[in-house]
Design a protein that fits this description.
The complex is a heterodimer of chains A (68) and B (215). With 68 residues, chain A is mainly α. In chain A, 72% of the residues lie in helices and 0% in strands. Chain A has one domain. Classes of the chains: A mainly alpha (68), B mainly alpha (215).
């Protein structure tokens, strides 16, 4: 995927991007979005986030703490 | 209103270190955990596997993720992230590896658990497993960077412009549907997409994003 963005960066000095490269960049963005959306519903990650929030709260009861 | 400078991994860490600033801290926390927890988890899994722990219990993986993020938020690490020295993902991978080693060292059955992992896998399956983990880890880090890039662009264009891009490009909906739903002409839709793509490629070319995107 990095190769796509290397080309995007190189072509940015002379916009607009070629249609083919623009399409590849959009596909990469779509894949990233799908990956992150799946992760947002992952119960293991939700547990990890809760565990971090608990640890931060217990170490700093008076401070600004994330809600689990 | 968007800040003049884009959020980067370094600026997110800086905001996370200032818990007294509640609103910016919470925003940074949400962005950081949404974008980076998945990548950190894959780095943790790969790091355990590199230590021959191929069946690490979920709670140990969660513990290391937590060790890493808590250390980052508290700013406890003497080894601070310096963007001039390399990619954010490499900093986190190193931090993850140290935390994994700390956890393995403090695990009462560390030798038995490690050997159990080795016994249960052939060399080939271990190799394949490591390669697969490396691919998943790379995919997760790319998603984090592109997610941050999209988030920054969203903050830099009007909500309507971003919505058009979201619908036509990210959701791949027909332009005609978007024109009707948004009450826009074809040329207004094309202009909106052009503005977002221009903003995306410009941001991708900034030093901070270029460092993360280029291999």
């Amino acid at each position: 995927m990095s190769e796509i963005w290397e080309r995007v960066i190189l072509e940015t000095s002379a916009p607009p991007l070629s249609p083919g490269l623009e399409q590849e960049a959009i596909e990469a963005l779509r894949r990233a979005r799908i990956f992150l959306e799946k992760a947002a519903h992952d119960p293991e990650l939700a547990r990890a986030r809760d565990a971090i929030a608990r640890r931060l709260r217990s170490s700093d009861p008076g401070g600004s703490t994330p809600q689990a | 209103m968007a800040s003049a400078y884009p959020d980067t991994p370094a600026t997110l860490l800086e905001k996370l270190a200032h818990r007294e600033l509640e609103a910016p801290w919470h925003e940074a926390w949400q962005t950081f955990t949404d974008l980076y927890l998945p990548a950190i988890r894959w780095s943790v899994l790969r790091s355990f596997a590199r230590c021959n722990w191929h069946r690490t219990p979920d709670h140990m993986v969660e513990d290391v993720i937590s060790d890493v993020v808590v250390a980052l938020v508290r700013g406890q690490e003497k080894f601070h992230y310096n963007p001039e020295e390399g990619r954010f993902r490499n900093y986190i991978k190193q931090l993850v590896h140290w935390k994994v080693i700390d956890r393995i060292k403090s695990h009462p059955g560390r030798i038995e658990a490690g050997m159990d992992g080795l016994d249960a896998h052939t060399d080939e399956s271990v190799e394949n497993g490591l390669e697969s983990l490396a691919r998943r880890e790379d995919e997760a880090w790319e998603a984090s960077t592109l997610g941050l890039l999209l988030e920054e662009v969203r903050r830099r264009v009007s909500p309507q412009t971003y919505m058009v891009f979201e619908m036509t490009k990210l959701q791949n909906r027909p332009a005609e549907d978007v024109m009707e739903e948004m009450g826009m002409t074809r040329s207004a839709v094309d202009n909106a997409n052009h503005r977002v793509m221009k903003a995306l490629s410009r941001l991708a070319s900034t030093t901070a994003f270029k460092r993360e995107l280029m291999s």
